[in-house]
């Protein structure tokens, strides 16, 4: 970043740094990067853009599909019609602005949906039969150690998140939910 300043390029350069996945370092007895747990699905994303406040953090949900429309928006370029995702530049301006209700992900036979409070994952056979599901309440269990999916106290959340997952995902949704 200091080199961009030195070269006089900082005022017209957008820098995006992101990881393609998280990493399990023994979490859930996994030593890998692939799963539907938060430790695999949550990835770093840092954006520095001219005219945007610096040093802010947001809890707004974003997805990789949102990076391209965000770059178009930041660069003042009209996005292509086929483009999916939603520009997150409003979050750069105001990190507490209301944002997406959920983010969708997939790994192999697992589809997952993350809201501000919950992560719900559903595993299916190639023909669509459910084989397993997981529900974690991040407000009480951020490390995802207590699967609530089969508890009657969370039947409403399971039903609603299953419906949202089947409606919105796992394929990218051009509506930018």
Categorize the overall geometry: elongated
Q: What series of H and E elements makes up the topology?
A: HEHEHHEEEEH
State the helical fraction.
10-25%
Largest sheet, spatial ordering of strands: 3-4-5-6
Our count of helices gives 5
> Sheet with the most strands?
4 strands, antiparallel
Strand content: 15-25%
Structural class: alpha+beta
Average of per-residue pLDDT values: 88
Radius of gyration using CA atoms only: 18 Å
Number of strands: 6
Descriptive report:
By secondary structure, this protein is α+β, with helices and mostly antiparallel strands. It has a domain of 33 residues. It has five helices and six strands. The strands form two sheets. A four-stranded antiparallel beta sheet has the order 3-4-5-6, with helices on one face. The chain has a two-stranded antiparallel sheet with strand order 1-2. The chain is elongated and about 60 Å long. The two termini are 33 Å apart.
Which short descriptors sum up this protein?
alpha+beta, single chain, 4-stranded antiparallel β-sheet, Choline-sulfatase, 177 residues, 19% strand, metal-binding, disordered C terminus
């Amino acid at each position: 970043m200091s080199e961009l300043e030195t070269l006089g390029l900082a005022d017209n350069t957008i820098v995006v740094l992101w990881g393609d996945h998280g990493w399990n370092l023994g979490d859930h007895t996994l030593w890998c990067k692939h799963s539907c747990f938060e430790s695999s699905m949550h990835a770093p994303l840092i954006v520095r853009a001219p005219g945007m406040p610096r040093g802010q953090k947001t809890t707004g949900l974003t997805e990789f599909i949102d990076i391209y429309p965000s770059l178009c928006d930041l660069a003042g370029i009209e996005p292509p019609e086929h483009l999916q995702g939603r520009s997150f530049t409003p979050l750069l301006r105001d990190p507490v602005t209301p944002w997406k209700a959920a983010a969708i992900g997939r790994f192999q036979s697992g589809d997952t949906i993350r809201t501000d409070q919950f992560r719900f994952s559903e595993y299916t056979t190639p023909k669509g039969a459910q084989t397993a599901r997981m529900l974690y309440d991040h407000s009480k269990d951020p490390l995802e150690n207590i699967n609530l999916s089969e508890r009657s106290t969370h039947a409403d959340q399971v039903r609603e998140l299953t419906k949202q997952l089947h409606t919105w995902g796992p394929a990218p949704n051009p509506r930018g939910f």
